Each structure stands twice: as structure tokens, then as C-alpha cells.
């Protein structure tokens, strides 16, 4: 389950993998809604290329993040990215009551020893987070989130860049951008010709 253990275990057979950008039973409604909201969006080539240049660019792009989450779900190794997303949501909360409720939920699901989706934190980071649970503020999970982001950047992000889904997006966006450019040129050509004709007449 853990990021560092994934390379040592057998990959899930292709026929059992879930389609990308489709929810799996048990997924949170928030995650499913996020994925649904970007399905109709068509990223351009420069956008997709930026995902490959920087992990931060991928995480800060709605479509890129949803695609990365969906990719990890097909590998049944999405606990780290779901923890990262939950931390982002937590940092955006205001009010001590809402923060406390969300903090407890994140702790129970990802941080506690033998949690259902326990993330791979070193003992120092885990204990620091546990000790801070008594008086949670918006920075409560900051250290743990950075730790998990670093793990993903070294492992699952590299697999994502080598995956067919990412490579296919690169190919598709190149082709689509070329097609759109050709269509724009073809549409503009008659107007340009008419303008030139009126000038010379």
C-alpha cells in the first residue's frame, strides 16, 4: 500500500483496472465531483507539457490533478494523493470547529497507526502531527503533507509520466492543437483574400 512498497509488489492485472477519471466504489463524493468537473475540459499541449516539467504544476492544475488521482486509483495506490488533497482542503477551512472536525477525520483515515489508509510517514513527522492534534491550526498537517508530496514526486509521479495515459495526452494535444490551428487559418483565409482584393481594386 505504501509508496515505497509499490515497486516490490505485483502490478494489478490490466483487466481488473478501473477506467481513468471514473469513480470507484467507496470514493468520496467530493473526489468524484472533482473528477466529473474536468472530464469535459480539453487541456492544450503546453498545459500537459508543464505537468511533465514540474510536479507542482501537475498538482496545481485541476485536470492534471484529477488525472493523476485517477491514474493512482487504477494502481490501487491512491492513499498518498488523497491525503495530500485532504490537507489542501483542511488548510482552506476557517473556524476552529470545522478545522477540528476535518483534522480528526484526516487523522483517523490517514495518520493514526494502522489507519485504514495509513500513509508512509517517518516516526518523527507522525509523532509531531499527533502531538499537535490537541490544538489544531491551519498548519497542522503541513510537515506531513510535504513529506508525502516528496515521496510521490520520487515514485508515483515518475510512473505517471511514463504511463500510457500521460503519453497519450501529449500526443492527443499536439494533434488537436495542430488541427485547431489549421482550422483557424482556413477560416481566416477567405477574409484575408477579400481584404487584399479590395485594396488592389
Please tell me about this protein's structure.
Residues 1-39 are annotated as: Disordered. It comes from Macrostomum lignano. Keywords: Signal transduction inhibitor. This protein has 201 residues and is mainly α. It has one domain (30-175): Regulator of G-protein Signalling 4, domain 2, CATH 1.10.167.10. It is built from 10 helices and no strands. The protein has helices at residues 29-38, 45-53, 55-59, 62-74, 79-91, 96-111, 123-132, 142-154, 156-162, 164-200. The longest helix is centred in the last third of the chain and has 37 residues, at 164-200. The radius of gyration is 22 Å and the shape is elongated. Residues 6-19 and 23-30 have low confidence and may be disordered.
Features:
mainly alpha; Regulator of G-protein Signalling 4, domain 2; 10 helices; elongated; RGS_subdomain_2; RGS_sf; RGS domain-containing protein; signal transduction inhibitor; RGS
- The fraction of residues assigned to DSSP E strands is under 5%
Runs in which pLDDT lies below 50 for 5 or more consecutive residues are: 6-19, 23-30
Mean of all residue-level pLDDT scores:
82
Termini separation comes to: 74 Å
Q: State the CATH class.
A: Mainly Alpha
Rg calc: 22 Å
Largest sheet: none
**Count of separate structural domains:** 1
Number of strands: 0
How does CATH name the architecture?
Orthogonal Bundle
**Shape annotation:** elongated
Structural class, from helix and strand content? mainly alpha
Output the number of helix runs: 10
Order of helices and strands: HHHHHHHHHH
What is the CATH topology assignment? Regulator of G-protein Signalling 4, domain 2
Provide the helix percentage.
Answer: 55-70%
CATH superfamily: Regulator of G-protein Signalling 4, domain 2
